Amino acid sequence: MIISNVSVPLLGMVDTGVTGHLESAAYLGAVATGSAIFGFIYVSVNFLRMGTTGIAAQRFGARDYDGIRESLGQALIVALAISLLLLLAQAPIGRAALALLGPEAEIKEFAQQYFSIRIWSAPATLGGYALIGWFIGMQNARVPLIIVVVTNAINIALDFWFVFGLGLKVEGIAAASVIAEYCGLFVGFYFVSRELRKFHGRWLLSKLTQINEYRAFVAVNGHLLLRTIALTFTFAFITAQGARQGGLILAANAILMNLQTLLAFALDGLAHAAEALVGKSIGERNRDALIKSVKITLRWSLLVAVGFSIAFYFGGRWLIYLLTDIEAVRNTTLTYLPWLALSPVVSFWSYLYDGVFVGATRAQDMRNVMIFSTIVVFLPAWYGLQFLGNHGLWLAFTIFMASRGIGMHYYYRARVLPTI
The pTM is what? Predict the structure, then answer.
């Protein structure tokens, strides 16, 4: 799961590296702006993955093989419905998002080009979320790795071909993503057919066609949606504040956020393992297995976090120079690199506990902690630290991540452990 997850932000880093070596920082800023928009959209509906994992893992632990089919079918149907809504509403969504982020005129033009192409990946991206979440719940980490590696390998190859071979620039970056996402989806469906042969069960049509059968799915995912919207708002807010400080700060923050995302996906690999193990333990009603799963994944998360802090502190300059050869962007990014080195040891608690709570399907508690950390902690911290400029923005983000970890540790002791 770590290998699978790390390959996702590596793709974003390739996008950044490709545009960072073009002749203008406007291309880098445009891809950062467009990626922030889709980060908000797609991460907001990432409940499709998280909710599916928890439900599927608990049904797997209970040996409910009709139920595992129901969890997959419902997730795919909801993914298709949301995708169609996004495609129908793409024009107003694009205008509103660019107005909120407020990039400079040249960056805005390129970002609009990126958005108008990338939006067509919605059905594949959301369907992929449902498939990956289901496979994790089924205790199968190999297939998500295959899906992600195939998707990202195709995307990276097309990035270089479209941008440097065909000269498509921002449009090439977006088109590569669209094509690669559909390739990954088709690979996922192939492995679904193979996986279901192992578990004899039935597809119950009534479970997929009657709205009242979606109550359990909606109950979990509704809370996850609100939780994720609050999280993506925070990341989009950082991008927007960077844009308002000028193109250099926007580009620097884009590079740092790519590295932060690399950290997040690495730690989420352990969180996904916790989702599967905790969900299976709860399905089996095995308290000892639950506690053991949390302890083991927590220890490994700490080790990975310390490793990232050391790597960012000593190797951050090399990574920044790899991602861009624009000297002004390099120097600006290095100014804020210490915040990135601090982030792993502050953040790992929140990522790990996300996995625990998803496996336990305690989505309401996740929602409460996230909204509190966003509204009561992050925004007031940013407001009070504005005089520090971009340093204040990163300090507010660090406080936000610490708040998430502390809040979820409390809820774990008070709500999750007593369930078994």
Answer: 0.74
